[in-house]
Specification:
Elements: E1 4-6, E2 9-11, E3 19-21, E4 24-26, E5 30-32, H1 41-50, E6 56-57, E7 61-62, H2 63-67, E8 82-87, H3 91-103, E9 109-113, H4 118-121, H5 133-146, E10 151-156, H6 164-174, E11 178-182, H7 197-205, E12 210-213, H8 219-229, E13 233-236, H9 246-256, H10 265-283, H11 285-298, H12 306-314, H13 318-335
Parallel strand pairs: 5-13, 6-8, 7-8, 8-9, 9-10, 10-11, 11-12, 12-13
Antiparallel strand pairs: 1-2, 3-4
Helix pairs in contact: 1-9, 1-10, 3-5, 5-6, 6-7, 8-9, 10-11, 10-13, 11-12
This protein binds flavin mononucleotide.
Flavin mononucleotide (FMN) binds near residues 33, 182 and 239.
Length: about 325
């Protein structure tokens, strides 16, 4: 397959081929990241609409709480391919939770070794495992020993210093079948620029697929990152907030070279309305509260609609929010 050039960017031919992750074949090289408090079924449904083949992750789950049955996984056939992400620090607990996720229909188990939040790291989970590589390895081995689906790891460059080169090799040797690298250290949190140069270095060291993550917010970012790193694919995170079509737009670009038009204000309002209704149907009043942040994201960067944004944030019930959105949509229709 020949390379083809779009907008002065050559799209490497390997990006149009399936990605093999152990026994799992992915027909898209663009993934949606797990986002705690965000990537619930409603969000995933909107992402899936334009990205039918992308791997999407459910919200990160605490392995211990999952085993206690506080949450029940239920991955519907329409959600496939969907992965489960777990965090924790006890290999046997993570292994048992992984078996549950496999039984619930997850296509892979992703182990979180990157979350910087104190609540998680205090309990030796998430990015704290960067400081305990032996424990991290024991976790990968324990999980890989009990599930048939691939075990993947999502991590960062290091805790403070960059330690990923050794760590990545160890994870691969332990049985990880894909590594997603968020190119920031734990101490950077979400600030500063992701340093994709480390992704290129890790990619050159490993045989398993490496997925690039951090600051990939457009097709142009994706192709720049892939050209710089030769990574096997990309994962989007915050760029999908208020723009759940981002993964699909990048996938379409990498597969065909076609660029998807930017969302209009009308598109944003329609998406906000749909998202609100999905959350309401799925979670009732709790969903309405969660909808606030999404509504706010849909209207971010819309200087003329900050009043509407504020009104939506203050809205007390579904019909009030729908009235506000419907009135704004009607105005946009008149202007169209
Ligand atoms: C609100 C929020 C929640 C997140 N939750 C998770 C999570 O549960 N698991 C995970 O691996 N990463 C999580 N992340 C990190 C993202 O998946 C991603 O690695 C990071 O935001 C960098 O990518 P980006 O620059 O595309 O956003 C979260 C990030 C944010 C902002």
């Amino acid at each position: 397959m020949a390379e083809f050039a779009v907008a002065n960017r050559a799209i490497p031919a390997y990006l149009q081929t399936p990605l093999q992750v152990g026994s799992l074949t992915l027909h898209s090289r663009v993934l949606q990241s797990p986002l705690a408090g965000i990537s619930d079924r409603s969000f995933r449904q909107l992402v899936r609409r334009s990205a039918p083949q992308s791997l999407i992750f459910a919200e990160m789950a605490h392995a211990g709480l999952q085993l206690e049955g506080r949450d029940r996984w239920q991955f519907l056939p329409s959600e496939q391919p969907i992965g489960a992400q777990l965090f924790g620090h006890q290999p046997e607990v993570l292994a048992a939770a992984a078996q549950q996720a496999e039984a619930a229909g997850a296509v892979c188990i992703d182990l979180n070794m990157g979350c910087p939040v104190n609540k998680v790291t205090r309990k030796r989970g998430g990015s704290a495992l960067l400081q305990e590589p032996e424990l991290a390895i024991a976790i990968v081995q324990a999980v890989a020993a009990v599930v048939r689906i691939p075990v993947t790891v999502k991590t960062r460059l290091g805790w403070e210093q960059v330690t990923i080169l050794d760590f990545a090799r160890q994870l691969e040797d332990a049985g990880a079948q894909l590594l997603t690298l968020h190119a920031r250290s734990r101490s950077q949190g979400y600030s500063g620029q992701a340093d994709w140069r480390w992704i290129a270095r890790v990619k050159s060291l490993l045989s398993i697929p490496v997925i690039a993550n951090g600051d990939i917010n457009s097709p142009a970012d994706a192709i720049a990152c892939l050209q710089q790193t030769s990574a096997d694919g990309v994962m989007c995170g915050r760029g999908s907030l208020g723009n759940p079509g981002l993964v699909g737009a990048i996938d379409r670009y990498l597969q065909t070279g076609a660029l998807t038009p930017e969302l209009t204000l009308r598109d944003r309002l329609q998406l906000a309305r749909e998202h609100l209704l999905l959350l309401w149907e799925d979670k009732g009043v709790a969903g309405l509260l969660q909808a606030r942040k999404h509504l706010s994201w849909y209207l971010a960067d819309q200087p003329d609609h900050q009043d509407l944004r504020q009104q939506l944030l203050r809205s007390e019930n579904l019909s009030q929010s729908l009235d506000l959105l419907d009135a704004a949509i009607a105005t946009e229709n008149l202007l169209a």
